[in-house]
Amino acid sequence: MKSLTQPIGKLVIIGVGLIGGSFALALKKAKAVKHVVGVGRTRKNLHTALKLGVIDEISLDAAQAVRDADMVLIGTPVGQMAGVMKTIAPHLGAKTIVTDGGSTKQDVIVCARKHLGVHFKHFVPAHPMAGTENSGAAAAFAELYCGRKVILVPQIETSARAVSAVRAAWTACGANVVRLQAREHDEILAAVSHLPHVAAFALMGTLAKRKDAKRVLGFSAGGLRDTVRISGSSPEMWRDIFLANRSALLADIDKYINEIKYLRSSLKASDGAALQAAFERARHAREQWLVKAKRS
User: Fold this and answer.
1) End-of-domain residue from the set 128, 147, 180
2) Which band of pLDDT confidence, cut at 50, 70 and 90, is reported for residue 135?
3) Are residues 40 and 125 in the same domain?
4) Deepest of 122, 188, 232, 247, by most Cβ within 10 A of its Cβ?
5) Backbone dihedral region of 233: left (phi > 0), alpha (psi from -120 to 50 degrees) or beta?
6) Phi and psi dihedrals of 59, rounded to 5?
7) What domain range includes position 272?
């Protein structure tokens, strides 16, 4: 992790969960922030964050908290961001930089344009490509972003100063920062992040609906645990992500259904050659992906 040339004086985290909490801890570890204020809906989570050193101060009033902030990270589910932006906009300082950690970008940018007003030029849409199935302040850890990609989606109006500051903050967290267009981001994430969650939720839901679910799950091993791990993620957060990225995700779900149908028809026809060929294609694709990921 690298230190910023000038540490952030006051950072406000709205939504102190895995993403926002880990951002704060990483910046603290890099000595890149002086004071962190946590804003949230539940006192219990905020007190946990304070106790663990994730934040230095608790606030239940977002409007009050942002008034003298240097940077604000909105770490709430994307469905809550419009309300947050509307609340804080009248109270933001003239130079306060605002960013987010949402998994969708087109909808967040629309909300920011609508609600941030003159402060939109200081808003840098962002998405850290990191996470676990756990949530809340207790799940946060400083190393979450080390070596991981963080995508920035600045707009034409976004000031160079704001982009530079947000880039520097994520770099201090140990992340590799890249830039994408909003639509490109959402289409990519639908395939590599949102669709896997569809699969995990659907598989766990299918097994849970069996009359003998308790007995069957009692025989499960690593394969099932690995496949459904992410179904333990926040239902509220993923509900919002699915709805926000509905069009792109529906297209990828249709492709996934077609692949399942192909496997089903091959199985029904006892076509072992077709099944093996499909499995080999998938294994080869995975191997090529892992080799490329290792090189990058």
Assistant:
1) 180
2) confident
3) yes
4) 122
5) beta
6) -145, 135
7) 184-295
